[in-house]
C-alpha cells in the first residue's frame, strides 16, 4: 500500500502538483534504505536535493569602502553644460531670420522631394498590381495540377 501511494505521489510530483507535505513524504521515503528497485532512479534526485539544501556559502565578501572620486560626475556635468552652450550660443548670436535665398532653396528641395514621393507611390501601386497577378497565376498553376492528376487517373482508367 505504501509503494502504491509513493507511485501516486511521484506521478503528482512529475506533474508539479504536489504539496510541501507530500514532497516531504517523498524525501523521507527516498532517504530510507528500502526503496523499490524500479524507483531507484528517483532516489539519486532526492538525495541530491537533500545534500544541496544543507550547503551554505561561507566565503567572506570584502566590501570596498574606498571613497570614490567625484571626478567622473563633474565630467558629466561639464559635458552637459558644453552641449547646452553649443546649442544656445549660436541661436543668441544669430538672431536674424533666414535669408530669401535659403527660403527659396528650402522650398525647391521640399517640392523636389514631394515630386519624388508621388512618383514612388505610383511605382508601389504598380507593384501591388503585379503581386496580385502573381498570386492569380500561382492559383491557376495549382488548379492546373488538379487537371493533370485527373488526366493521369483517366488514362489509367481507360487502359
What's the arrangement of secondary structure elements?
Elements (H helix, E strand, L loop, with lengths): L1 H13 L5 H12 L8 H14 L17 H23 L6 H59 L1
Helix pairs in contact: 1-2, 2-3
3D structure, described in words:
The chain is mainly alpha-helical. Among the domains are: 2-53, no CATH class; 101-159. The chain is built from five helices and no strands. It has helices at residues 2-14, 20-31, 40-53, 71-93, 100-158. Helix 2 (20-31) crosses helix 3 (40-53). The longest helix is centred in the last third of the chain and has 59 residues, at 100-158. The protein is flat, with a radius of gyration of 40 Å.
Largest sheet: none
Strand coverage percent: under 5%
- Termini Cα gap: 70 Å
- Could you spell the SSE succession in H and E letters? HHHHH
Count helical runs.
5
Given helix and strand content, the structural type is: mainly alpha
Rounded average pLDDT: 81
Overall outline: flat
